[in-house]
Amino acid sequence: KASVVIVDKSIDIPKNNKSTIIKVKNAYTSFALLLSQLDKNKVANKKGIENPSFINSESKIKKNCYIGAFTYIDKNVILNENIKIFPNCFIGENTKIGSNTIIYPGVKIYPNTNIGKNCIIHSNSVIGSDGFGFAPKENGEFITIPQLGNVIIKDNVSIGSNTVIDKATMESTIIESGVKLDNLIQIGHNVEIGKNTVIAAQSGISGSTKVGKNSMFGGQVGIVGHLKLGDYTKYAAQAGISKNTKNNETLIGSPAMPKDQFIKSYIIFKKLPSIVKQIEKLEKKLYNSN
């Protein structure tokens, strides 16, 4: 019943069609771009500084920015043009944020963070909190290892609600350009996420792991620390990654294994009850024959 329909160029249009047809190379991508533009228009007109809010006099705010009420901006913060910061946010000292970035309510950005252009950070995410670093003492207690690094988020990154990205111990936790993070994701200290990688909800990446570019993570993927993961690799939901991975792999299971190997193993796994019965029958025959 739509009056205008976006379709792929390859689709044949019925002769009795009454709608206006817009043919494009990729209908799904075009539709996403259209919705994205409509979404931007919702916040495009937001400008100015609402009260009450606090902005340190040593910070620099460029034109067409919006800062919502109850937001705190510490010293030496640089906000470039057309940034939108919604209410109840905290921006720590020495933080730099690129043009056209949108920060939704309740986001907390720790000091020394560097965020690129055209990023979106959704509500209640935390950027730059301490990495999980503790050293054991002889008496069984743990002492905190100070986390002195920062977080670098490059251009066109999207971060879902309640996601946490820890700062590095000494250098930087790095999220490369084009990365898309879902809600409820944990990124550990010194992690590097390659460009255009997509990670679904409730996944966790332990410290110092390097994730390749253009990778795809299903929900609840768990990755141990200090790994090097390949480019263009897919990780099925709930995969457990305990060793380095290659390029262009699809991994399933916990511990994860290549797709073909997993399917073969799972076929045998499903047959285990009948195999056990066969073994029991053979045992009885052998027992009775003796």
Please write out the topology.
Elements: E1 4-8, E2 20-24, H1 27-44, E3 48-49, E4 54-55, E5 60-61, E6 66-67, E7 72-73, E8 78-79, E9 84-85, E10 90-91, E11 96-97, E12 102-103, E13 108-109, E14 114-115, E15 120-121, E16 126-129, E17 134-136, E18 142-144, E19 150-153, E20 158-159, E21 164-166, E22 172-175, E23 180-181, E24 186-187, E25 192-193, E26 198-199, E27 204-205, E28 210-211, E29 216-217, E30 222-223, E31 234-235, E32 240-241, E33 250-252, E34 257-258, H2 259-289
Parallel strand pairs: 1-2, 3-6, 4-7, 5-8, 6-9, 7-10, 8-11, 9-12, 10-13, 11-14, 12-15, 13-16, 14-19, 15-20, 16-21, 19-22, 20-23, 21-24, 22-25, 23-26, 24-27, 25-28, 26-29, 27-30, 29-31, 30-32, 31-33
Antiparallel strand pairs: 17-18, 33-34
Your description of this structure?
With 290 residues, the protein is α/β, with parallel strands linked by helices. 17% of the residues lie in helices and 29% in strands. The chain contains two helices and 34 strands. The protein has helices spanning 27-44, 259-289; strands at residues 4-8, 20-24, 48-49, 54-55, 60-61, 66-67, 72-73, 78-79, 84-85, 90-91, 96-97, 102-103, 108-109, 114-115, 120-121, 126-129, 134-136, 142-144, 150-153, 158-159, 164-166, 172-175, 180-181, 186-187, 192-193, 198-199, 204-205, 210-211, 216-217, 222-223, 234-235, 240-241, 250-252, 257-258. It is flat. The model has no long low-confidence stretch (mean pLDDT 95).
